[in-house]
Amino acid sequence: MAQRPLAVFDLDGTLADVRHRLHHVEGRPRDWDAFFAAAVEDGPLTQGIELALASAGECEVVYVTGRPESCRADTLDWLARQGLPLGELRMRGPRDRRPARITKPELLRRLAARRTVAFVADDDPQVCDAYERDGFRVIRAHWMAAQPVLEEVQEREGRT
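^ thats the sequence. predicted structure below, dont judge the formating
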């Protein structure tokens, strides 16, 4: 049987509503431990969840996130509580602080080396631009209003 293509989803701002925990990283010093610990309380972003569930009929769902590997257990638990399809979870390495626009496309290219990617859904405009430059079909997740602090930490600090 042929392998189904991959539907790839970002988490923060695409599937998960992170607005309730942004206050942990708005000031200095940033409280990254509290920011990531609060992820278990993220609300679902309905449009992203519905797209992931609908995609599971035709595709294998995979998750690519800038969250660090230390968040794996909480992230898998959150995905299960949302009723999302089981799928591979690709995360940022523990010391990887490169911008999301570099890290996430690298993770996606590794997936695409062995599987066909039907599309990737992400909210970060710079990440989406990088995906498109690599030739991937992108669904820009615009259902959560842009959060400047989230964009800043993704680009300058490589933390999510």
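The chain has a mean pLDDT of 90.
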